[in-house]
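Priority: medium. Attachment 1 of 2:
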């Protein structure tokens, strides 16, 4: 089994997680820029963070044979903080980088006017840089937030086939499918979506334009839930080809639209990155 996790925050995971993921069949990941939990106070902290997820994290992943790509954006939550708004001016520098395969995460957290502006501005950047967009749907009032997201996506003029609407559930999946965007689902231990519910959605709607991710971060999450979902699919009558489509070929198809997806092999030949290694105390 081969797995491509299209949304996972490896900055908040350990090297042990990388080892477990590789053993479970994870061969590629995409790490979206997101809120780190602690509010950032100036654009410079974003510069260091963006540099990390396009530099250090690909190196760290490569030590375990995993290909790492990133998406770059000002996330919805911090779009409300005036101290962070200048980050929008930094984005063109990073959206031109190799290994950046989409603009994201963008979208809504609380559906404020500031979030409206940041969302529209970053969809425009996706168009300018010929990149797909990864859109975060809000955890509160999800149905209204999903519809509002779809309205903004339509107004932007971006091809809906170049957008994934993430963190969907049974209430919102039909609207996403009707709009022609890709449907993203985050499998969590207690919230968002479970492997069993995901199997039921796949049975009802089919495997086309579906991305299944773990979205694992610093909260209660599990980077192996993509593999658990694959096992649940097989146990419930889906074929190995269905699993490969959902867990590998679909994310490859979506992110390949960036023209920057590189799955040609491990980049783990170098023992260090910027003078650092994953070994404490050196080799």
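Attachment 2 of 2:
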């Amino acid at each position: 089994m081969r797995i491509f996790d299209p949304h996972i925050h490896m900055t908040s995971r350990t090297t042990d997680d990388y080892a477990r993921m590789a053993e479970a069949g994870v061969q590629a990941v995409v790490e979206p820029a997101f809120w780190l939990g602690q509010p950032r106070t100036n654009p410079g902290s974003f510069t260091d963070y963006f540099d990390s997820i396009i530099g250090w994290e690909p190196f760290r992943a490569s030590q375990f044979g995993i290909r790492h790509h990133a998406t770059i954006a000002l996330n919805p939550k911090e779009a409300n903080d005036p101290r962070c708004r200048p980050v929008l001016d930094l984005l063109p520098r990073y959206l031109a980088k190799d290994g950046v395969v989409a603009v994201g995460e963008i979208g809504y957290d609380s559906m404020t006017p500031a979030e409206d502006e940041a969302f529209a501005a970053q969809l425009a950047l996706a168009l300018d840089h010929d990149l797909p967009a990864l859109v975060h749907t809000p955890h509160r009032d999800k149905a209204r937030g999903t519809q509002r997201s779809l309205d903004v996506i339509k107004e932007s003029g971006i091809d809906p086939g170049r957008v994934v609407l993430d963190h969907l559930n049974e209430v919102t999946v039909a609207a996403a499918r009707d709009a022609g965007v890709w449907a993203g689902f985050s499998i969590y231990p207690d919230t968002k979506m479970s492997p069993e519910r995901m199997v039921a959605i796949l049975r009802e709607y089919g495997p086309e334009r579906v991305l299944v991710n773990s979205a694992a971060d610093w909260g209660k999450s599990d980077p192996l839930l993509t593999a658990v979902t694959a096992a649940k699919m097989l146990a419930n009558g889906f074929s190995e080809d269905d699993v490969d489509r959902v867990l590998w070929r679909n994310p490859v198809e979506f992110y390949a639209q960036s023209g920057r997806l590189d799955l040609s092999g491990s980049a783990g030949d170098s023992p260090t990155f910027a003078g650092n290694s994953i070994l404490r105390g050196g080799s």
